[in-house]
């Protein structure tokens, strides 16, 4: 009975910690980083090539917005890149999502918080490669 009780207590503590991190992300005040670029180049084609090379997939496309995502599953903090096109103007929103099942929170890739630091760092590195190719300012 002691092992089962320990497993239950550990699961409850882990679940609680995950929800606390999601709440911290939600209340961070910075749900995403935003980068804007004005160009007549084929930005969407470059983004699609970059996404395929870096393990991102097109999650949804609505109107002039494309949302790319990397990471699926319960224990993965998914990383997102939204591309909003308005003529020759392209706006990029970069963030990661903490899913505590009860609470979900989006968090910008920049910043020094310990919450989801590894997925934010991985996404920032990959997305800054794209921004360098597009001659856009990097995520800080």
Short summary:
The protein is α+β, with helices and mostly antiparallel strands and 140 residues long. Helices cover 38% and strands 30% of the residues.
Radius of gyration: 17 Å
Decide which structural class fits the backbone.
alpha+beta
Share of residues in helices: 25-40%
Low-confidence stretches: none
Beta fraction of the residues?
25-35%
Number of strands: 6
Q: Return the average pLDDT rounded to an integer.
A: 88
- How many helices in DSSP terms? 3
Alpha carbon gap, first and last residue = 50 Å
Largest sheet: 6 strands, antiparallel
Order of helices and strands: HEHEEEEEH
User: Which of globular, elongated, flat, extended, rod-shaped describes the shape?
Assistant: elongated
Task: Summarize the helices and strands and which ones pair or pack.
Elements lengths: L1 H25 L6 E6 L4 H11 L3 E6 L2 E6 L8 E8 L2 E11 L4 E5 L8 H17 L7
Antiparallel strand pairs: 1-5, 2-3, 3-4, 4-5, 5-6
């Amino acid at each position: 009975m002691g092992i089962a009780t320990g497993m239950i207590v550990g699961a409850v503590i882990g679940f609680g910690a995950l929800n606390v991190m999601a709440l911290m992300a939600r209340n961070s005040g910075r749900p995403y980083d935003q980068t804007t670029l004005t160009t007549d180049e084929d930005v969407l084609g470059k983004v699609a090539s970059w996404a395929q090379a870096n393990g991102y997939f097109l999650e949804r496309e609505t109107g002039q917005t494309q949302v790319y995502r990397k990471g699926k599953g319960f224990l993965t903090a998914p990383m997102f890149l939204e591309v909003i096109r308005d003529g020759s103007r392209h706006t990029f929103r970069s963030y990661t999502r903490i899913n505590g099942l009860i609470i979900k929170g989006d968090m910008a890739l920049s910043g020094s918080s310990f919450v989801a630091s590894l997925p934010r760092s991985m996404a920032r590195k990959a997305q800054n490669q794209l921004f360098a190719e597009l001659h856009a300012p990097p995520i800080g």
